[in-house]
Amino acid sequence: MRAQFVLSEIGVGLRRNLTMTFAVVVSVALSLALFGGALLMREQVSSMKTYWYDKVNVSIFLCNKNDAKDVPKCAKGAVTAQQKKEIEGDLKKMDAVDTVAFETVDEAYKHYQEQFGDSPMAGNITPDQMQESFRVKLHDPQKYKVVATAFAGRDGVQSVQDQRSILDNLFGLMNGMNVAAVFLMALMLVIALMLIVNTVRVSAFSRRRETGIMRLVGASGFYIQMPFIMEAAFAGLIGGLLACVILLAGRYFLIDGGLALGEKLNLIDFIGWEAVLTKLPLVLAIGLLMPAVAALFALRKYLKV
Hints:
Strand content: 5-15%
Helix content: 55-70%
Oligomer: single chain
Structural class: alpha+beta
Radius of gyration: 31 Å
Order of helices and strands: HHEHEHEHEHHHHH
Strand order of the largest sheet: 2-3-1-4
């Protein structure tokens, strides 16, 4: 009988505050969708770093005859055969180095044409303008500075470049988007909490006569508060379910269908469905508990029991 009464009170409260309940559901859904999106974005960036940092190389570009005038480091002329042999030997002795590959001028020119053959400038580039280089793969890509320090000022070396720096701008952009999503999520969360507190206050005020009678007949404080807490939890649960739908739909339409980024950007290692599914229980739990806790604290002020 008590359970039936509590459920009936929940239904009454939801009907009386239908507009505000709808606002709570929408705000909770948006804030939790942003929360889940921020978690997925962070995991995506981490996955991409693991995928690409393992594939990038450190490039040691050697001086050629055209660099003597323009590059101070190559003022002594093009790299000699002896210098190349010493550089390769020292690279192979380093513990941080996994593999060393030498790229000739012809190979560098071929790779350039494959990548930038459609560019108007490609026709003006000749093989003798390209540079020989060592492509060094490290056991740990984070140890780039070990190689850079050892070879950057060496005779015959024009420059040492870490290909990770090319990716850092992309990852920085994605991290910036993640921070923006977290900020927007926090803003929506504050709005949702304010709506929850206001909804509970209005609901408690509109039913002050009923709660007064219950207090007179000896009902416990928890029993009187329960319908209000359950109303907030129910609205939060609906918002959490909508947030889950938004996350699932976003993963499908952005990557698998619709925009089909998974096919158009096949160089990006997108996170799979399992990453999305593992976040859904957390989203639902927060959607259920957050409004209930907010309602509990709001009742202490607006419902004296």
